[in-house]
Amino acid sequence: MEKTLRLKTAEIEKISHLDYFNIAISVDCVIFCYHEKKLKVLLIKSDLEEFEGLYSLLGDLIRPDEDLETASYRILKDRTGMDDVYLEQVQAFGSINRHPSGRVITIAYYSLIDIKHHKLQLSHHDLHWQPVNEIKKMAFDHKLILETCLARLQQQVMDYPIVFNLLPEKFSLRQLQELYEAILGFELDRRNFRKKISIKDWLVDIEEMENDVPHRPGKLYKLKPEFKKKGLKKKSISGKQQAVS
């Protein structure tokens, strides 16, 4: 005779596993820009005594009434004034002691923005653009998160046209190569780089030349419209973001 499965309610499940339902989830955004021929990341000074003097990524706890994407865009909107840029989920970080206040699992995203095109609303005096290769120590495990997101970006740059989010609409091949070198951390052979970019067929020659440059003017290009990446779907964003990782 088949045994009848004894079902339990969700409330009983919660009561019997109370500690499991007391784990917080957060989102951390690694916001990259390209400025002064350097890859930079937007940081904020930590307001926790345990990390006095250290900078952290922009993050917040996920609210009970929002999902991951909504939280990530809320943080981006609150801190930069933008919600229409490229944003990609990378991975979760869940070390037991990563947060001094308790168990917090965070989901990391990275974003790429053109600092000259977007007018950032940097109203917080502790916000700071920092060159990635100059960062030695950060609050929480944010150095690991930053390095992981950078590694993801480095893996993707030659296969997907995502780096164009960091450039103005019109750019030269020299500018494009300098950007790739800033991301990858080493110099590229000019001829080989241009050959690889040509094979990708990402660009269109707009029949214009650079102006007011200290070197021989180069041709200007645009990314073909079909390759433009708008990022994830926009979410409704409201409320004030807290400096919690």
What does this structure look like?
The chain is α+β, with helices and mostly antiparallel strands. It folds into 2 domains: 12-156, Nucleoside Triphosphate Pyrophosphohydrolase; 163-227, Arc Repressor Mutant, subunit A (Orthogonal Bundle). 24% of the residues lie in helices and 25% in strands. The chain has helices at 10-16, 68-80, 142-156, 173-184, 190-200, and strands at 24-35, 38-45, 55-56, 58-61, 86-93, 104-113, 127-131, 203-209, 219-223. Strands 1, 2, 3, 4, 5, 6 and 7 form a 7-stranded mixed β-sheet that branches. The longest helix has 15 residues, at 142-156. The radius of gyration is 22 Å and the shape is elongated. The chain starts with 9 loop residues before the first helix and ends in a 22-residue tail after the last strand. Mean pLDDT is 86; it is low at 230-245.
How would you sum up this structure in a few lines?
With 245 residues, this protein is an alpha+beta fold.
| Tally of structural domains | 2
Mean pLDDT: 86
Estimate the global geometry from the Cα principal axes.
elongated
Could you tell me how far the N terminus lies from the C terminus, measured between alpha carbons in angstroms?
A: 53 Å
Measured on Cα atoms, how large is the radius of gyration?
Answer: 22 Å
Class based on secondary structure composition and strand pairing: alpha+beta
